[in-house]
Amino acid sequence: MQTLQNGSYKVKTHKGITMIELIIALSILAMAIGVCITNYFKFYDSWTNSTSVDLCNNYILHMIKNSALYCKNKNKSGYLLFSEENKVKFFCGNKKIEEYEIPLEFKFKNTESFYKRININNLGEVLTSCTINYQDKQGELHRITIRVGTRYVQIKNE
């Protein structure tokens, strides 16, 4: 403090922020960060689910086509079996050739409609027309429809 000529004191003032202003600014910043983090995790869950669905669709189609090609090359009939443990197994003759497990959170639905089995003859043709239904971890139903004779496969997301 400085003393003036008339005997009074002059107080120096500094421009700055008070503690209340600082607390309010930090709390607003914390709320904004919280909202951003929440949205990030929602986006991440959605993205991982979408990626898993694409991977599952492609691998099931890959198994169907490769199984048909394997049967044609070996001149033997075979079948794809959709088991209760959410696995797809390919058998040629009585020998298991390949096995695929869908992601843990996914679940096959209504595989009883085609008796959990897709038959393939020795010419590599799929003999069982069916719709493979599975549910992803967000509860959405996905369908893979197979038509006999045309080698047509359609993927539907509901």
Mean pLDDT: 86
Report the radius of gyration as a whole number of Å.
Answer: 32 Å
CATH-assigned fold name of one domain: minor pseudopilin epsh fold
Our estimate of the beta-strand percent is: 25-35%
Described by its quaternary structure, the protein is single chain
Query: What is the number of strand segments?
Result: 10
Looking at CATH, the homologous superfamily of one domain is minor pseudopilin epsh domain
Low-confidence stretches: none
Written description of the protein model:
The chain is α+β, with helices and mostly antiparallel strands and 158 residues long. The chain has a domain at 57-157: minor pseudopilin epsh domain (minor pseudopilin epsh fold), CATH 3.55.40. It is built from one helix and ten strands, in the order ββαββββββββ. A four-stranded antiparallel sheet has the order 5-4-3-7, covered by helices on one side. Strands 6-8-9-10 form a four-stranded antiparallel sheet, covered by helices on one side. Strands 1-2 form a two-stranded antiparallel sheet. The longest helix has 56 residues, at 19-74. The radius of gyration is 32 Å and the shape is rod-shaped. The mean pLDDT is 86. The chain crosses the membrane at residues 20-41. This is Prepilin-type N-terminal cleavage/methylation domain-containing protein. Pfam families: N_methyl.
